[in-house]
Structures are given as C-alpha cells and as structure tokens.
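stuck on this:

***
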Amino acid sequence: MALPEHDVADLGLAQAGVRRVEWAERAMPVLGRIRERFAEERPLEGVRVSACMHVTAETANLLRALRAGGADIALAASNPLSTQDDTAAALVAEYGVSVHARAGMDEDAYDRNLLTVLEHRPHLLFDDGCDLVNIAHTERPDLIAEAAGGCEQTTTGVIRLRGMSAEGALKLPMVAVNDTATKRMFDNRYGTGQSTIDGILRATNAMLAGRTFVVAGFGYCGRGLAERARGMGARVVVTEVDPVKALDAAMQGYTVLPMDEAAPVGDVIVTVTGNRDVVRPEHLAALKDGAVLANSGHFDVEIDLDALEAMAVEVRRGVRPEADEYVLADGRRVVLLAEGRLVNLGAAEGHPAAVMDMSFSGQALTAAWIAAEGASLAAGVHEVPGGIDTEVARLELEALGVRTDALTPEQEEYLRSWRA
C-alpha cells in the first residue's frame, strides 16, 4: 500500500510509535467507543481534514477515530518541541495519515508545513492556536470556499478567532471546542496543572516544597497549576489583571501581587495567560539568582525572550534537557525552560492520556457535527452544542464506573413550572 504524502524524521520509528499510541489508547476509553461508533456510521466519509496539532500519541488516537469515520487527514505540528518522531512515523506508516512534522524544526519549516497541509484542500480545519486558520486566510484564501468549518482547541486560538470575527475577517464557522465545560475542567485545569509541574520537574529536578512559585494568570489553566504547586508544598503567588479572577485567587488563600512585586521573590515563575510580554525587561532585571522561567500559556511570547537574550552576557544552552541558563552582567543566573515554549510539551509529554480522552472525544463528535451542519452555520465563532459536552461527560462516567442520580418526573415538572 502506498504511503500518504509525508515529511517525518524516520519511518523506521513507526513500530515504537505504535507502542506509544497503543499505551495511550488504554487510558482513552471514551475515544475508543467513539472510534467504534464512527467505524459503523462513517460520519466523515470523504471529508478532508487539515490539522495543526501537537503530534503526540494522544493526538494520534483522535486521528484514528476520525479515520475510522472516513476522514482523509493531513497533519502539521503546532509546536516543534512537542513532536514525537515515533508517533509521526506511526501515523504515516500504520494509520494512513499524511504527516508533516519533525521534532525541533525551525520556524520556516513550521510555516512551510502549514501551507503544505492546506494543499489538502480541507473541508474541515483542526487548529491549535489559530495559526492554520490565520495562514489560510492571509496566504491561501482561495481554500476558504471549500471549507465547511473547523475546530479550535486552545484559549489563545479562540481569542485570536474572536478578534478575526470582530473585524469581519473570519470567513468560515469555527467551533470553540476549548470552551466546553469538560475541556476547561479536565484539560485546562487538571491537565495543564499536572503536566506543567511534570515539565518543570523533568527539566530542573528542583524541590518545589518551600519555594515561592509564581503563577501568572488565574484562568482555568492558572487555577489548576496553582492547586498543583500548592499541593507540592510551594508558596504560591498569583499575578492577574482581571479583578474578578484576582479576587477568586485571594479568596482561595493565594497571595496576589503585581508582577513587579512577584518577580523579585519568585523561585519559579510560570506564565499561563495567553497574552504577550507578561514577563518584561523590568521583571527580568529584578529576578533572584537561579530563578526559573517557564511558559504554559501557548505561544513563546509571554516571556520577553529578546530582552532576556539582550541582557545576558553568556548563554549556556542545555545545562539540563530543555533548560538554558542566561548569565546576567551582575552574575545572576536565570534558567529558561523549553525555549519559552509550552513547558508541559517541550520538557514533558503534555497532558495525561486520560485527560485528552475527554478533550478529543468532544472534538471528534464536534467534527462529525460540523461535517453535517457546517453548511447552515454562519462565519464566526460558535459554541459546541451542549448535547455533545453532556454525552462526553456521560461516557466518561460510564468508563469510570461512576453512577449518578436521575430526576424524577415530579422533580422535572417542578423545575419547569413557575406555579409550584
């Protein structure tokens, strides 16, 4: 059988990739059920999908479900540090996906791969940060007419899509799969919290107990990270621009400070905002010796990396795996993890498969819904239908063996009636 078009590091890694994918599959029972359903119903028959996603074993299991439903898929990496070369090889050689991704590729290769997967002339776009949608609109607008819509699975990407929509620049319906209750709860909160700590520990082997751990941003990701850091015994400081979120953090017992005051006391500082320039030159100048900087908020713009480079008199690359040490003029050392990219994927393996089971199950069901309903949707950002989120939660509870109560007819009537 001819292999799909591809650009991967080494097809000889395919069997190692299969073992990795099958290991993740064990912790993804809901997606497995959806794959079985898709194989029977074929809701994506003949649908071409172009995707920009992390090339990991968990993503591979999502793509297997889409393939079972009939989809024809071309995949580019959304982060060069997160690409698992063995998974990429397995997707091509064993699972029939066109993959264009290599670990450690540069920015030119990243952009080139996005354009390559767009040549697939997609009916659906799967995005992780809005780069694929952005480049489709700016460099290949001729492809928009064929697309029924797409999915965006990150907070950063949804923010960018809403900006495009507000300016009238978004020409197709995009569904914010990031904004479902199950995604925010499991993926953003529990997944980001655990996997970010995992990345920091792998990269530094540092003790967190008794250290001051600064969390920049107290959205769902920041809350999960703060909880996990406190659970490791760290003193947690939160920085935030939203008064409501800052109040929430204070009421949960965290110290809330502006970054000007948090930077000088932080042993570990992690950005999880989805914005840029969260750690700026004035903050870098105030860091204590040995401070660790990491980002778990998507793009590598949350920490001012150009300023850090300019301030350094020496840069020691790879003092540990995915840890670079910047020596400042006064001798202070600042340790940057994963090049300022997502530390949970650059220095670890991202969210546990059990977390991605829920996120990707919702994404698979949403893809089938868009394929069926996309023609009736207006250009813009759309919410995932509530029934999909409920179905994913129900399937997950079944997989966990958890039972719930059900409303009696009298209770349902009571909730409907205003006369009672």
